[in-house]
Design brief:
Order of helices and strands: HEEEHHHH
Oligomer: single chain
Distance between the termini: 45 Å
Structural class: alpha+beta
Largest sheet: 3 strands, antiparallel
CATH architecture: Alpha-Beta Complex
Number of domains: 1
Strand order of the largest sheet: 1-2-3
Length: 131
């Protein structure tokens, strides 16, 4: 199968892959590698913004490319932007075949679970800048 250039670039040259170093980071996972795909996002959030975000993924090149594109787009973004993020918008950008679009739900669930982890580990009253 021939993958689009955007997918090949993100798959072979991921810039946001791997664990984040230092500090208390929030994490969220979704999927099951035994079922064909698993995604984990890890983020460092400061002052209501995503200071850094990384992913680890097992799955098709489209899953890995979607994680990479999403991490790139969310680095520096407000948490509210991440909450509103719809990875399905990446389908056209990555020329995702219809039979692979359900994979984006795994990516979306992992991101949402990461944000829930952040929500549940904040002190009462939350950090400044958090809605």
């Amino acid at each position: 199968m021939e993958y689009p250039a955007a997918v090949r670039d993100a798959f072979f040259h991921p810039r946001h892959h791997g664990p984040l170093a230092g500090g208390r980071n929030c994490r969220g996972t979704a999927g099951d590698s035994g079922a064909g795909e698993r995604v984990e996002f890890e983020a460092r959030i400061r002052d209501g913004r995503i200071d850094a975000i990384a992913f680890r993924a097992y799955g098709s090149p489209w899953v890995i490319a979607a994680c990479e594109r999403l991490a790139a787009a969310l680095t520096g973004a407000a948490v509210a932007t991440a909450r509103a993020c719809e990875p399905s918008a990446l389908a056209a950008e990555l020329s995702l075949p219809p039979e692979k679009r359900s994979s984006l739900l795994t990516v979306q669930d992992a991101l949402r679970n990461c944000l829930v982890d952040w929500d549940t580990t904040q002190p009462v009253g939350g950090p400044p800048g958090r809605p």
